[in-house]
Design goal:
By secondary structure, this protein is of the alpha+beta class. It is built from 15 helices and 21 strands.
């Protein structure tokens, strides 16, 4: 119960509760708020990457759809290097280079190609043997040959083979073939039969001579340039050019997006199959990855076009539904920056929290320390009151006893002088107690000061010791002096020096009462700028744990045989020495005992 009755303990418990509850609530609420902020910071770049990917996907989707629609309107025969335009106005053989031979005009298209039923891949290209080609054309030819070499492997890929097979399955059988090459006009064909024979296809109809010229475009072009052409000699599968009533129906499928694996990696291609009298053709165009990448240059984040959604934790991917490919947007720098900001926010909160909690803890500890100090002072004052009562009662009892003996004529009449000396000693002892109490009171109120006057310090110290010698010898102590005869005058406060000597000598006598040698040695020496006053005894000395609080108020020895006292003497000595501009120190004396040294400036 004593523990819980302590004001310090109660203050510690209340202060701890006042700190833990609000600090804990602050940490919980602050941590949640910081976590929400961190989640928003870290989600922002991912959300921005996703929005960017969706925007790029929509933009590219529209661009590819427009490209697919425009290429769907391109006649199938333009996929040849040379072709005859059946819509032309010229009579007789007429073959011109394909507009695709100069290369794609759209930056998204890398190349056009055509694959026959045997898997041979051709491209509408310029002829490198043509003498009219300039240096730019020759560079185009070299580039086209490199692309054609890259696509040769892809011509045998499963995707292209599947398209060939699909075209063969959709090609009409015996009855269908006879209809395709029937000499009757196409208008006589029932529309329902045509749609049934070629589902999901459009039919291009051309005259047999136009088909023959397209089929033999290269030979016709060569003969035209050499001047050896005859309009009635070109035949194709038994069909003569002069028979203008004969019609040819070509089934053209719809373009579909596919992935093609080339020697330089996967490519997005658009494929369609074309059913002709000579078999099924697969026509298509390759999307340029570089061209797609150029459209991403204006994007806020780096993006790439890929067949696989390998986004990872630092990127976002959006799928183009029509192609099956993905646009992957990388936000690595932004996410790393977000992580850095998130860590900074968390560290800032923790620093603020610990700084606030630390400041609150320091304030709480200060309150507890103040309560502890107040409680300690209350205990010390209680002990001081008890010690002061004891210190005052002892000399008062002696004064009363010896005064009564002198007044009543009691005791040995021959020792009356001795009784009178005892009265004087007890009065002096009583005076020292009162003087220490008054000095400590002045010290607490900041009113302790000295008034130095010039004088002979050596003679004054000698006289102070001599005044105490009789009382010390009666108590069983022996005093020795080591003071030079010649000593220069200096400024000092006589009352302060007398109180210093009186307290040091009195302590030496009290704490060395159990020593075999009760000698007290007082020494005074001078240096150039200071004077040293030392008091040494032969007692047990002062314990180490007591030395730390030696010059604190009410500090006394913790031994059971320690003499009674107020614990104010050394405090006053230290204050008076410092008031002179000097200091006091303690050391264990050589050979045993205590040595107090006071150094005063000259």
């Amino acid at each position: 119960m004593t523990f819980w009755r302590s004001r310090t303990t109660l203050a510690l418990v209340l202060t701890s509760a006042a700190l833990v509850v609000p600090c804990g609530a602050w940490y919980i609420v602050g941590s949640r708020e910081v976590q929400r902020t961190i989640d928003q910071i870290e989600a922002a770049p991912r959300r921005f990457a996703s929005d960017t990917a969706l925007q790029l996907t929509q933009r590219l989707q529209d661009r590819l759809q427009a490209l697919l629609e425009s290429e769907s309107n391109r006649p199938f025969y333009q996929y040849q290097s040379l072709y005859h335009d059946p819509r032309g106005a010229s009579e007789g053989p007429s073959v011109t280079p394909s507009p695709l031979a100069q290369g794609p005009t759209d930056p998204l298209i890398r190349a056009y190609f055509q694959i026959d039923s045997l898997g041979h891949l051709t491209m509408p290209t310029l002829s490198e043997t043509d003498a009219e080609l300039n240096s730019d054309d020759l560079r185009k030819v070299a580039s086209q040959q490199a692309v054609q070499k890259e696509l040769q492997v892809a011509a045998r890929a499963s995707t292209c083979v599947a398209y060939l097979q699909k075209g063969l399955e959709q090609q009409p059988q015996t009855q269908s073939s006879s209809l395709l090459f029937n000499t009757a006009p196409l208008s006589t064909f029932p529309s329902s039969n045509t749609q049934q024979l070629l589902p999901q296809r459009k039919v291009e109809v051309m005259e047999s001579n136009a088909w023959a010229q397209n089929a033999q475009a290269s030979k016709i072009y060569s003969d035209i340039k050499s001047g050896n052409v005859s309009a009635t000699t070109f035949v194709n599968d038994g069909l003569r050019l002069k028979d203008k009533q004969q019609k040819i129906a070509i089934g053209v499928g719809e373009f579909q997006w596919c992935s093609m694996q080339t020697t330089n990696g996967p490519r997005l291609v658009a494929l369609r199959n074309v059913t002709t009298p000579e078999g099924v053709l697969v026509q298509g165009f390759v999307i340029s990855n570089e061209g797609v990448a150029d459209t991403f240059k204006s994007a806020a984040l780096p993006a790439r076009f890929t067949p696989n959604a390998t986004a990872g934790s630092y990127a976002a991917a959006a799928r183009l539904e029509s192609t099956g490919w993905y646009i992957v947007v990388s936000a690595a720098k932004e996410i790393d920056a977000a992580h850095t900001r998130a860590r900074h926010n968390r560290v800032s909160f923790l620093q603020l929290f610990w700084a606030g909690a630390g400041a609150a803890s320091v304030a709480g500890l200060c309150v507890v320390a103040l309560v502890w100090h107040t409680e300690r002072l209350a205990r010390q004052r209680s002990q001081f009151a008890a010690s002061a009562a004891h210190e005052l009662r002892t000399p008062l009892a002696g004064l009363r006893m010896y005064s009564e003996m002198l007044a009543e004529g009691l005791g040995d009449p021959t020792r009356s002088r001795d009784y009178a000396h005892r009265v004087t000693e007890e009065a002096a002892r009583l005076g020292r107690v009162v003087s220490n109490v008054l000095g400590f009171t002045r010290l607490e109120h900041g009113a302790l000061n000295v008034r130095p006057e010039r004088g002979d310090l050596a003679a004054f110290v000698r006289s102070c010791v001599e005044r105490q010698r009789t009382a010390l010898e009666v108590a069983g102590a022996r005093v020795t002096l080591s003071i030079p005869d010649q000593f220069a005058e200096m400024r000092f406060d006589k009352d302060a020096i007398a109180e210093i000597i009186q307290n040091l000598v009195d302590n030496a006598e009290k704490y060395a009462r159990t020593a075999a040698n009760r000698e007290i040695h007082v020494a005074l020496s001078a240096a150039d700028h200071s004077v040293t006053l030392s008091v040494r005894d032969r007692g047990p000395g002062i314990a180490v744990d007591v030395q730390r609080k030696l010059f604190h108020p009410f500090a006394r020895g913790n031994r059971d045989d320690s003499p009674a006292g107020l614990g104010l003497g050394l405090v006053l000595v230290k204050a008076l020495a410092e008031a002179h501009g000097g200091c006091i120190s303690y050391a264990d004396a050589p050979g045993g005992g205590a040595l107090f040294t006071v150094i005063l400036p000259r």
